[in-house]
Specification:
With 539 residues, the chain is an alpha/beta fold. It has 16 helices and 20 strands. The longest helix has 22 residues, at 361-382.
Length: 539
């Protein structure tokens, strides 16, 4: 029998000393539970993704020093650790097998992903050789993340004699990604008959969230171990006579729970790892800011969150009442700052320049920019970060104001469609128990409005969100043509309108804060469309 420990832990990019200490702590816990080997995530030594730190020679030297320190302190257990390796002028995404203070073997990642949020070919050269090591009498093959997503590297190790595959991963989540991982690993196992243990990173890193959900599949593709999503865990799985056994079997989350926990972890780690003192949120009485406030409180605690309501003459009394009700439930600091005096000042300043011109969205946007100024002033004064409240539907079509509601440091629901915002708000209310719902029902059921002019609703400017979201998902995430989207049954007029708005809003999105990615394609690292662009889709 061989007992494998899986360290699903939250590494911080660049915190080499801190990551070494966390790995050693996991090793001590694994030894105490009788494990002979500890499997850590991809690039666990330095955190993932290090991005252009990998272009700096000093970074490799620092990683090498940290690795040497780790090697010298590992005793009584075999450790498999991911790290960036520089060798003879070439750089690799590597894994080292450490045993009794010795570097036993090195594996270099063969498949380097260069799609979605990945650009590993910018930094690394591909390995070419299998790595199979004997641990406690078992022949173990090593793979790293993308190695399992297509045939080749996994099979190479099995041909070299592997009885069990140990896979290091830094696989960022999007909704239901854990099911895809099990599917592709199952395809490798079906082709070879060799079981596998999959260790995944957990934690937030800029726009990415790593969900953990480490698992093990036996030779029949049956899941024998599953660790929880979005939290650190040390899993134990036993390999005996070709079979895998474990007592660790976490339940799978609903889509709403998965999305919500991803947002909470993303906010907690972005604020915490970056050293901000807390969060500031501009409340509007609408559902987007309500959901963002709940996420922030769940991520940071009420004592580190400040909400600011900035009513204008167009703000409904219902919006004020609902916001005050939320604040009372959540217990965060709350301020109300009426912006009518600032609106009047702007009107006087600009009147000579706007003489003879009708009122339009200019005056609406000034309101948003006044609010953005107030929030950023509070941020500068307190050291807390402004969390913006725009959702993916709005970001897609530019239904947002530069230097207004887009002003801030982190966009919590930037990759959350409006239709999902409603689902997540209802989900959050199910977590309240006897205390009753946090988000008032009025906020959920009333027609959404920016409240920048009398009797305004979002649908004055946009198609219904069910239609809008379906068009954006098909065009932006699935790369379907407008012809295909129309043929699928969506209204041609709405398709033409949304596609046009999506294209012309690129300059806004490029200036928006980084935000948490929870879909297969977000408006971030994996959306790189030119701003100046005359290409026209065919209809």
């Amino acid at each position: 029998m061989m007992r494998i420990a899986v360290a699903q832990f939250n590494a911080t990019v660049g915190d080499l000393t801190g990551n070494v200490e966390r790995i050693l702590k996991c090793a001590a816990q694994a030894k105490a539970r009788g494990a002979q080997v500890l499997l850590t995530p991809e690039l666990s030594l330095c955190g993932y993704p290090p991005e252009d730190l990998l272009l700096r020679p000093d970074f490799y030297r620092a990683c090498r020093q940290a690795l040497d320190d780790l090697v010298s302190r590992v005793e009584g257990i075999v450790l498999i650790v991911g790290y960036p390796e520089e060798s003879e002028g070439r750089c690799y995404n590597a894994a080292m097998v450490i045993e009794n203070g010795q570097k036993k073997a090195v594996y270099r990642k063969i498949r380097l992903p260069n799609y979605e949020v990945f650009d590993e070919q910018r930094y690394f050269e591909a390995g070419s050789e299998a790595c199979v090591v004997t641990i406690a009498g078992v022949r173990c093959g090593i793979n790293i993340c993308a190695d399992i997503w297509e045939p080749g590297a996994f099979e190479l190790a099995c041909t070299a004699g592997a009885e069990l595959m140990l896979v290091l991963n830094a696989s960022p989540c999007h909704l239901e990604k854990h099911q895809q991982r099990a599917q592709v690993l199952g395809e490798r196992i079906e082709a070879t008959g060799v079981p596998a243990v999959y260790a995944n990173l957990v934690g937030g890193q800029d726009e990415l969230v790593f969900d953990g959900a480490s698992f093990a599949l036996d030779a029949h593709k049956v899941c024998r171990m599953r660790l929880p999503q979005f939290e650190e865990a040390l899993g134990i799985v036993d390999f005996t006579a070709g079979n895998l056994q474990s007592a660790d079997m976490a339940a799978e989350l609903s889509i709403e729970a998965e999305a919500y926990q991803a947002l909470v972890l993303g906010v907690r780690d972005y604020i915490g790892k970056s050293g901000f003192k807390g969060a500031i949120i501009g409340l509007s009485g609408g559902i987007d800011s309500a959901l963002t406030l709940c996420v922030a409180v769940d991520a940071l605690g009420a004592d580190k969150v400040r909400a600011v309501m900035m009513p204008s003459p167009y703000t409904a009394q219902m919006s004020l009442d609902d916001s005050r009700a939320m604040i009372e439930k959540l217990g965060v600091r709350y301020d109300e700052i009426a912006i009518a005096p600032a609106m009047q000042t702007y009107a006087v300043l600009l009147d000579p320049l706007f003489a003879g011109l009708p009122a339009d969205t200019t005056e609406e946007n000034i309101q948003a920019r006044i609010r953005g100024n107030i929030l950023m002033a509070l941020s500068n004064k307190t050291g807390a970060l402004v969390l913006t409240t725009g959702n993916k539907s709005e970001m897609a079509v530019g239904y947002c104001t530069l230097y207004g509601d887009m002003a801030g440091g982190f966009a919590v629901i930037k990759d959350v469609y409006k239709t999902l915002v409603y689902r997540l708000s209802r989900y959050r209310n199910t977590l309240c128990g006897d205390a009753g719902p946090v988000i008032p029902e009025n906020i959920i059921v009333r027609p959404p409005s920016a409240e920048l002019k009398p009797d305004q609703t979002d649908q004055d400017s946009l198609p219904p969100y069910e239609v809008l979201d379906a068009i954006v998902r098909a065009y932006m995430e699935e790369d379907r043509s407008p012809r295909e989207i129309i043929a699928a049954g969506l209204p041609e007029a709405d398709v033409r309108r949304v596609v046009r708005l999506l294209r012309i809003a690129e300059y806004k999105r490029r200036q928006s804060p980084v935000g948490i990615r929870i879909t297969p394609r977000g408006f971030g690292k994996d959306w790189r469309y030119p701003i100046t662009n005359r290409y026209q889709d065919e209809f």
